[in-house]
Amino acid sequence: MRLLLVEDDNHVAAALSAVLARHGFDVTHARSGEEALRALVPEGDGFGVVLLDLGLPDQDGYEVCGKIRKRTSTPVIMVTARADVRSRIHGLNLGADDYVVKPYDTGELLARIHAVSRRTVHEDAATGGDSDALRLGPLLIQLSTRQVGVDGTVVQLTRKEFDLLALLAQRPGVVFRREQIISEVWRTSWEGTGRTLEVHVASLRAKLRMPALIETVRGVGYRLVTPAA
User: Fold this and answer.
1) Hey, which end of the chain has fewer CB within 10 Å, N or C?
2) Where are residues bearing 4-aspartylphosphate located in the sequence (predicted)?
3) C-alpha dist (Å) from residue 82 to 55, 85, 93, 113, 205
């Protein structure tokens, strides 16, 4: 898999590139936001994953993430020292698919890279099926086109946000265990994904402006509550 590593620290980039190369990745190193954006044109989809450090010298990392998402659907994993949930949600709202918080374990990073790449392959294979839509009050979910609307207004979701919403919406009122959601959406049983699930639930509630749409069932998981029309 080709991977675009956006990292301004050459020592960090060299060490990480060596690790990734040992695990079969073909790494292209960009030292700035501008360099990363140039690498994504015209062959943005030639990369399997973009690994984006937010501490860049020329542009705000969040701004770069938004620009990348406008140019390509390639999965973006943010690397950030900001551990607060609000910063993570902001990145996801801009189109990032996942994040890792510094300092991170190399095994964690590799697991997240493989998770987003597996999901992308699965989604590409699933496209072209019969058109199908779920309407729940003001919420409309079109499964075949992966579009979501609220009261006729399109809401932009990331891959994982859509997959999570679609999973819950296909069986409204049914409680999905955390382990089941992680297995279905992230296609892994890795326990560290649990915190990511919480962040994505919070992001969905905020984007859809329906804080009561996804109910937390304490100690078990989550369920979708059908909104009033």
Assistant:
1) C
2) 53
3) 10, 9, 16, 19, 21
- Lookup: tokens for 114: 């493989």
Q: Roughly what angle, to the nearest 10 degrees, separates helices 85-93 and 193-208?
A: 60
- Cβ pair 182, 171 in contact under 8 A: no
- The two three-digit tokens of residue 148, written as one number: 């979501």
pLDDT per residue over 112-163, tens digit each?
888 777 665 445 444 444 447 888 889 999 888 889 999 889 999 998 999 9
pLDDT digits (tens, 9 = 90+) for 60-112: 889 999 888 888 878 899 988 877 788 878 888 888 888 888 888 888 888 88
**The residue type at 76:** V
- Token pair belonging to 188: 């892994």
DSSP structure class, residue 191: T
Q: Give yes or no for a contact between 33 and 63, defined as CB atoms under 8 angstroms apart.
A: yes
For 152: left if phi > 0, alpha if psi spans -120 to 50, otherwise beta; the answer is left
Span between the terminal Cα atoms of the chain, in Å = 45
